[in-house]
Design brief:
Elements lengths: L1 H20 L25 H19 L3 H18 L10
């Protein structure tokens, strides 16, 4: 019986030492292309493309500012309703 206790004790200490010395695995990194910063593939725009994007953004802002508060509210409500139609909550399924 003493031999069994000694073996159990030594095995327990060995397992404890292994667990204490084990290093946690590093968290998985982001996918390829993530975090490439301003030199990434999405940032390689010519000056002409940048100006076009600025012009489009300016037009969107101006169009949004031309809406009255009631029109903006109605547009938001319409978008919300369309989202509920596409992505119903619960177990209900969209019927096509």
């Amino acid at each position: 019986m003493k031999t069994f206790v000694r073996i159990f004790f030594l095995l327990s200490l060995s397992v404890l030492a292994l667990v204490a010395g084990a290093q946690p695995a590093p968290p998985p990194g982001p996918g390829p292309g993530y975090g490439q910063g301003p030199r990434g593939p999405m940032r390689e725009l010519t000056e002409e493309q940048r100006e076009e994007r600025r012009r489009e953004n300016r037009q969107r802002r101006e169009a949004w500012q031309q809406l009255s508060p009631e029109e903006r509210h109605q547009l938001r409500q319409d978008i919300r309703d369309a989202g509920h139609d596409l992505y119903p909550r619960g177990r209900q399924r969209r019927q096509d």
